[in-house]
Amino acid sequence: MSNTIFFIHGAWMTPRCWEPFIGYFEQQGYICKAPAWPHKDLPFDELRAHPPAELATLGVTEIVDHYTSLIQAQPEPPILIGHSFGGLFVQMLLDRGLGRAGVAIDPAPPKGVLPLEWSALRSNASVLFKWMAWEKIVYLAYDDYCYAFVHTLQPEEQWTAYDTQVVPESGRIFFQDALAALDPHEAVKVNFNNHERAPLLLIAGLEDHIVPPAVVRSTYEKYPRSPMRTDLLEFPERTHWIIAQDGWDEVAASISSWLTERAGVSKPL
User: Is 219:187 a contact under the CB 8 Å cutoff?
Assistant: First the structure.
């Protein structure tokens, strides 16, 4: 079976957020791919300064369909690892019968999981309370980024992450997730009772503001009705920047162990 990993980034990010994980898993012998969302495959500086107008119309379905096409083009099902919105997309892709195993790190909540914690509302307020942001490209201010992603890091680490990682985003995806209960198209729906999906690992950072651990636990609790393996790992002192802040390698090592010990993935040669 394939030992290819597809890394799926989240909102405000590009594939460069996966550089630490890609280096780690390539050393483990995995083939790593990190394709961008549609309209976000431009050079970082260009995307940050001049995002394409098409980004304003990008929704969840278009993103998941994009990854579906890429995964189906692989000779064998890859392992899927996603962060934030990417973690939600991993669950949706597994639900479509794609991937041989999935890891959802600090995943945005699927339909049926309500993120009612104050920190989650505060983290998304700059988008959700912006007039007509549903059909606009939105921008993340430094202070909002610090609160949502890196509030426990030192100021110089916060600035470095912001300057080297954050790009404009589609406002539509935030409304699709926040208003999932009212969406007749069920853009962020996951069939928790899918008996044929691949194994899934959910990961929570206990200091995460934008996807608090209670939200990840609520997602996990939706799954026991399925006989397919579903596990939960929690990491103390980790913010939403769990994939790159100090200690990211412990998270990566735990994923590597889970893949071989729980998900039936053979160690690469």
Answer: no
Tokens coding 12: 């405000």
| pLDDT digit string, tens, across residues 144-178 | 999 999 999 999 999 999 999 999 999 999 999 99
CATH number, domain 4-261, options 3.90.1800.10, 3.40.50.1820, 3.10.180.10, 3.20.20.140: 3.40.50.1820
- DSSP secondary-structure letter at 66? H
Q: Percentage helix, strand, coil, to 5, in the chain? A: 45, 15, 45
Q: What is the DSSP string of 103-141?
A: EEESPPPPTT-----HHHHHHHHHHHTSTTGGGSEE---
- Distance between CA atoms of residues 192 and 243, nearest Å: 25
Q: What's the farthest any 2 CA atoms get from each other in the chain?
A: 53
Quick check: 95 and 112 in contact, CB under 8 A? no
Predicted structure pTM score? 0.97
CA separation, residue 120 to residues 2, 94, 149, 159, 221 (Å): 36, 25, 11, 22, 19
Per-domain residue ranges for the chain? Answer: 4-261
Dig out the tokens for 113 from the structure.
């999981």
pLDDT at residue 107 greater than cutoff 90: yes
* Phi, psi (rounded to 5 degrees) for 29: 100, 5
* CB distance 130 to 138 below 8 Å: yes
b/e sequence 142-167, b meaning 16+ C-beta within 10 Å: eebbbbbbbbebeeeebeebbeebbb
